[in-house]
Amino acid sequence: MLIKLPRPSDCKASEITPESIYFSRRTLLGAGLAGVALGALPRLGAAAEVSRYADVEGGAAPGWFSDKLVSTRWQAVTVSGEAITPFKDATHYNNFYEFGPDKGDPAANAGGLKTEPWSLVVDGEVAKPGRYALEDFIKPYQLEERIYRLRCVEAWSMVIPWLGFPLAQVLKQVEPTSKARYIRFETLEDPKSMPGQRSGFALINWPYVEGLRLDEAMNPLAILAVGMYGRELPNQNGAPLRLVVPWKYGFKSIKSIVRISLVAEQPQTTWQGLAPDEYGFYANVNPTVDHPRWTQARERRLPSGLFSPNVRDTLMFNGYADEVASLYTGLDLRKNY
Ligand SMILES: Nc1nc2c(c(=O)[nH]1)N[C@H]1C(S)=C(S)[C@@H](COP(=O)(O)O)O[C@H]1N2
Ligand SMILES: [Mo]
């Protein structure tokens, strides 16, 4: 019998409130949202010779990106025995509230985001602040492939092959001062191309902000990604540059970054600011600390359907305890959720 019915205690999508409830007046009022489709569909173009993933659709990479890919020896870090999530699911079931509250909104609406040229500021407590064109910013780094689990706080998960470079290498380059204790990230603010930022339903204080403690940011698992599935990032996945911190709930992995600041104090982050009882600063994946309204002990691994919900146990630190548990020695993870 292949059909596995969920146990009552399993995570059911219907019982989980999406993170979007907190800012979507549409959800609150149950009213319809006017059409917000913007611009063209995500770039579909020439196949990149580098892709090893069968079902990948995606944009022709800009020159600087494909040059970098072909000249790079990929160092795969792999989740063993777990299938990579189909590209279609990874690119059509997204959270990116700048483009709307529903899972399909980012794929439908992010095509109008202009990711070239892109500039990025590094500032705050660093010896070498600067403003960079993206291609200059990534020039010093080798791209690595990292196949990581991604676990959303809403109790669904995927396995995604990212292309990126360790955040620690960037920190080394910009030289944090002795006052720097945290790193703060900011997403682009551009209501013209981001319908979620200009609609009246937003309770979010844009721009989206995330942060890490400096020692977390130095952990070798933390990367800045510029690609996935052998290609540049689709817009809905956070092009052209996003954070990936696989031992934390997905909302920490901030997309479409325009500013990286080294700071002395713990930054106020978007979800913590909206609902501090539900979303903490740490947001480490933890099956023993439930969300106030649902269990975090289990998760739906996408693709997931009614008859094959594909439910599995959630792993401590999303399965990366060996690499990161020592960061939290002596910290009460029940309080610092
Ligand atoms: N700027 C920004 N970054 C964001 C979000 C967002 O709404 N805005 N959503 C977060 C959440 S809740 C999750 S689960 C992941 C989803 O990443 P994916 O769509 O690439 O799977 O992105 C995170 N990064
Ligand atoms: Mo999420």
From TrEMBL:
Pfam short name (any one): Oxidored_molyb
UniProt keyword terms in alphabetical order: Metal-binding, Molybdenum, Oxidoreductase, Signal
Family matches, as Gene3D superfamilies: Oxidoreductase, molybdopterin-binding domain
SUPFAM superfamilies in the record: Oxidoreductase molybdopterin-binding domain
Catalytic reaction(s) noted: L-methionyl-[protein] + a quinone + H2O = L-methionyl-(R)-S-oxide-[protein] + a quinol; L-methionyl-[protein] + a quinone + H2O = L-methionyl-(S)-S-oxide-[protein] + a quinol
Listed cofactors: Mo-molybdopterin
Oxidoreductase molybdopterin-binding domain ranges (all copies): 115-271
Top-level taxon of the source organism: Bacteria
Cofactor comment: Binds 1 Mo-molybdopterin (Mo-MPT) cofactor per subunit.
Positions annotated to bind Mo-molybdopterin: N94, Y97, E98, C152, T187, N237, R242, S253, I254, K255
UniProt cross-references to InterPro entries, sorted A to Z: MsrP, OxRdtase_Mopterin-bd_dom, OxRdtase_Mopterin-bd_sf, TAT_signal
GO molecular function per UniProt: oxidoreductase activity
Post-translational modification: Predicted to be exported by the Tat system. The position of the signal peptide cleavage has not been experimentally proven.
EC numbers, comma separated: 1.8.5.-
NCBIfam families: PRK05363.1
Assembly behavior: Heterodimer of a catalytic subunit (MsrP) and a heme-binding subunit (MsrQ).
Function: Part of the MsrPQ system that repairs oxidized periplasmic proteins containing methionine sulfoxide residues (Met-O), using respiratory chain electrons. Thus protects these proteins from oxidative-stress damage caused by reactive species of oxygen and chlorine generated by the host defense mechanisms. MsrPQ is essential for the maintenance of envelope integrity under bleach stress, rescuing a wide series of structurally unrelated periplasmic proteins from methionine oxidation.
Family designation: Belongs to the MsrP family.
UniProt-recorded name of the protein: Protein-methionine-sulfoxide reductase catalytic subunit MsrP
UniProt source species: Pseudomonas mosselii
Lineage: Bacteria, Pseudomonadati, Pseudomonadota, Gammaproteobacteria, Pseudomonadales
